[in-house]
Amino acid sequence: MTTLREELASIDEQLDALEQRKREIYRQSLTATEAEKICENHLAELLAEPDTGTLRYPVSVTGIHFEGELAQDRRGKANRLVRVRPCGEEFKGKTFLGIYLGDMARTVGCTYERESGVLTVHLAAHNPAIWVPKLSRVVFGCESWWGTIEAEDQLREISDETINGVWYVQAMKSLQASG
Q: How many structural domains are present in the chain?
């Protein structure tokens, strides 16, 4: 009776043989007649090469390394009061009081080094993060209009006029009008 590990190893061997045969067929397609070609030559050349990026599971992770910071204060304004108008329709164009937390990572990716077994986690796509107590959630800069509050008179609503007065909004509208 074979063990589960032995059966899995046998299946892996069969898959390797099939992958190798598949690459051979793509190589043969390069010199085949037009009627027998499987795909365009540039694609067949690519598919004839061994796939070095595929991971076989299970993998052994011997260490985890983090790159990047979860939050950064690139603007030097963390913990400042801000006014924020989220773009979602559910917010009905309302402006809320918030606290700027800093620029936080919105995405996480990872790479795995086969030889060392180290998994590297990459924190990326940092964006301004604003805690809005009334909503009990974080609103990101890319999904809102926002600005720091330096003086009491800046507690006003962020209006459509304010948004339409921003230079890049005007530029986008100008491009849309001419296109």
A: 2
